[in-house]
Amino acid sequence: MENTQIVRMWTGWVRPEDRTAYAAYVESTGISAYRSTPGNLDAWLLARGTGDGRVEITTLSRWESMEAVRSFAGDDPEQAVFYADDDRYLVDRETRVKHFELAAS
User: For tag attachment on the chain, is the N or C end more exposed, with fewer CB atoms within 10 Å?
Assistant: First the structure.
């Protein structure tokens, strides 16, 4: 698996009125940290209304290998990485992330 590109996915939910501020916050924290870690190939921040009064925020990042992911996330790469103001915005969150092998691009 070390020669296979990895896609890392995490999801959290915010109030609609916090969508823009939280997106900017994640861009300056998590997405910036992804992009500055050696072995990161690219990263995206996705948002969508869920119809239940929340906005779903998903981060996707693509990595050269699981070793590159570990250099960002630490020894337990399935553990989500949170930042100081996440509690201010998030109404719910995944505490574990998903990793996928990139099967086609």
Answer: C
